[in-house]
Automatic annotation (TrEMBL):
<keyword id="KW-0479">Metal-binding</keyword>
<keyword id="KW-0408">Iron</keyword>
<dbReference type="GO" id="GO:0020037">
    <property type="term" value="F:heme binding"/>
</dbReference>
<protein>
    <recommendedName>
        <fullName>Coproheme decarboxylase</fullName>
        <ecNumber>1.3.98.5</ecNumber>
    </recommendedName>
</protein>
<dbReference type="Pfam" id="PF06778">
    <property type="entry name" value="Chlor_dismutase"/>
</dbReference>
<dbReference type="InterPro" id="IPR010644">
    <property type="entry name" value="ChdC/CLD"/>
</dbReference>
<keyword id="KW-0349">Heme</keyword>
<comment type="pathway">
    <text>Porphyrin-containing compound metabolism.</text>
</comment>
<keyword id="KW-0560">Oxidoreductase</keyword>
<keyword id="KW-0575">Peroxidase</keyword>
<dbReference type="GO" id="GO:0046872">
    <property type="term" value="F:metal ion binding"/>
</dbReference>
<dbReference type="GO" id="GO:0004601">
    <property type="term" value="F:peroxidase activity"/>
</dbReference>
<dbReference type="InterPro" id="IPR011008">
    <property type="entry name" value="Dimeric_a/b-barrel"/>
</dbReference>
């Protein structure tokens, strides 16, 4: 019987939220503004075109920030380089880091882990023996190569106008402790969760990233849509679903509009 569900892991992700000092930016003379903007645009453009990285830019609403950079990197360490590169930009004199979040894109495998266990038992392998572990890794690698999974693990940041990011936990509180809830019950709840999610299929693209061991919450949730109302309806609907109503704990929400690197000047001009 499995207890810990496996996951497939893709992009390393760094979210950074900044405040833009618009009054100081506007006070710069035009040639200097152009130069700063060109330098930032060159780096952002290179990151957005890189096969081993990606960059999302968003104008945030409210006091929790003005600009969100979402960095993807194939290698975890590369996030460090990207962070340093951004910090070396002249633009950094005008944008102040407020928040950040480190995570790795993941596909949860509740059903699939149970299937793998059943298959290995059928093969007569002794649980967690060397033979079991080797076969387990092979079946997991098969799942990772499946085009549907591989495509999602390494999908680029969706080019949808609106983005919403928030971190969340699964509760560990008395009777509502996700981590000592029996596997089958968790699997059933995740199945239900997935069903509700799929009723929004096409209207929203969700990116779930795991941050246990990396950051203050357990998962990061990025939602992308062409209509901001979809976020409100989806998150509200999920609140009634047991996986969220009973076990979900949520951090702060950051909401805004994505823009392309070519639109950086428009964002900065305000
Ligand atoms: O990946 C899949 O599509 C399979 C089903 C699925 C899993 C395993 C799925 C589907 N999710 C999964 C895992 Mn999800 N999801 C959230 C939130 O606000 C809230 O209440 C919760 C935040 C939203 C809005 C959302 C949307 N999901 C997870 C996990 C990992 C849990 C674990 O492993 O214990 C978390 C934390 C999480 C949270 N989810 C979907 C969606 C949507 C829209 C879908 C359907 C996607 C589609 O098929 O179009």
């Amino acid at each position: 019987h499995p207890n810990v569900p496996e996951s497939l892991d893709g992009w390393a992700i760094l979210h950074r939220m900044f405040r833009l000092d618009r009054r100081r930016w506007d006070a710069l003379d035009a040639p200097r503004r152009d130069a700063v903007e060109r330098e930032a645009g060159a780096l952002f453009g290179a990151l957005a075109r890189d096969a081993d990285a990606d960059l999302g830019l968003a104008q945030l609403l409210g006091h929790k920030g003005d600009l969100m950079l979402t960095h993807y990197a194939r290698a975890f360490d590369a996030l460090g380089d990207v962070q340093a590169q951004v910090d070396k930009l002249a633009l950094r004199d005008f944008i102040e880091p407020l928040e950040s979040y480190v995570s790795i894109l993941e596909l949860g495998l509740y059903e699939h882990t149970a299937k793998i266990h059943a298959e290995l038992r059928d093969r007569g392998l002794k649980a967690h023996s060397d033979a079991w572990n080797a076969a387990f890794d092979e079946l997991l690698a098969d799942a990772e190569r499946e085009p549907r999974n591989a495509g999602r693990l390494w999908a680029r940041i969706p080019h949808r106008r609106y983005v919403c990011f928030y971190p969340m936990n699964k509760k560990r509180d008395g009777a509502d402790n996700w981590y000592n809830t029996p596997y089958d019950e968790r699997a059933k709840l995740m199945l239900e969760h997935g069903k509700i999610g799929r009723s929004f299929h096409g209207h929203v693209t969700q990116v779930i990233s795991g941050s246990i061991g990396f950051d203050d919450w357990e998962w990061g949730v990025d939602l992308y849509a062409d209509d901001p109302l979809v976020f409100k309806k989806l998150v509200y609907t999920m609140r009634f679903d047991e996986a969220s109503s009973r076990f979900g704990e949520f951090g702060r929400f950051w909401t805004g509009m994505q823009f392309s690197v070519a639109q950086l000047g428009v964002f900065l001009a305000g």
